Amino acid sequence: MQVPIAKPYIGEEEKRAALEALASGQLSQGPRVAEFEKAFAGYHGAKHGVATSNGTTALTTALMAHEIGPGDEVIVPAFSFFATASCVLSVGATPVFADIDAATFCMSAQAAEVLITPRTKAIMPVHLYGLPADMAAFQSLCERRGLVLLEDAAQAHGAKIGPRSVGTWGTASFSFYPTKNMTTTEGGMVLTNDDRIAERLRMIRHQGMSTQYLHEVVGYNFRMTDPSAAIGLVQLGRLPEWQKKRNANARHYDQHLRSVRVPRAPEGYSHVYHQYTVRVPEGVGRDAVLKRLNERGVGARVYYPLPIHKQPVFQRLLGDRTPALPETDRATREVLSLPVHPLLTDEELEYVVAEVNAAC
Q: Taking the complete model, does pTM exceed 0.85, yes or no?
């Protein structure tokens, strides 16, 4: 049996919506993009949604909208996808790497606070694997220290703390890459409740223009296409049902997996399980478990085997200033993500459980 880690779904409704957008002749940043922006922002309870070409450009646009650039520092986790930090470099600022909380894999607010310097402009927690970071702590910290709060919500569509969705605590960036909980094939979105920031976001993603051929700021072509937005509107409608299935799959793993540490969400947090990530005890050997599972057809993956601060590009930049991040290092040795996508069958779920229990 082959059980992939992710299984993007593009159904007949998505295909029809994309073809209708193509036939309309309005292909880039047209009415479907505007409709998708409004719907996605409304789903999260945010005032503004600004669509972009992908998740990385969403992060970059958010940084630029807050005028973060050379001489500024942005505190980010090292245990995340590379774009969390590379987008900081791309605007000329300096990423400063903080350690994670061992229980959640998300950046620790306490670890971030000790890294604040006069050059710190923003803090960017990541809602890793679909679990919100401790946003109350980060919001309080940013308010006390006069810092911009950015959310890397690329993996956390619809995640909540209590009744409040991610994407409403700061300026938040989402990704619609094919393996995410919903997709536009490629695409991104920035959410904000700040009118001024929303205006800057819209200009930056559209060559810096406020009106046609009037360029107010330096911008880029970070626009989303209407066929992508049309697909996104259909997928957004599917998201609640898909999320129920992800949660059911996660509960099944919680109840039946042995010898691995299963993920736990803090009280009041809703985990959307972009990834179902366990810890394999160091004495067992994560890499050996991964190898066996892959050989047996289970598409387990390690997100992430090498933290950002130890990637070659950052090793060249940091040199002997590479920070000591013990919880990040431990996570890279122990984490293992299992298939949790909503298209898993009961038979596939049982197979994954049996293979993980046999491997550990």
A: yes
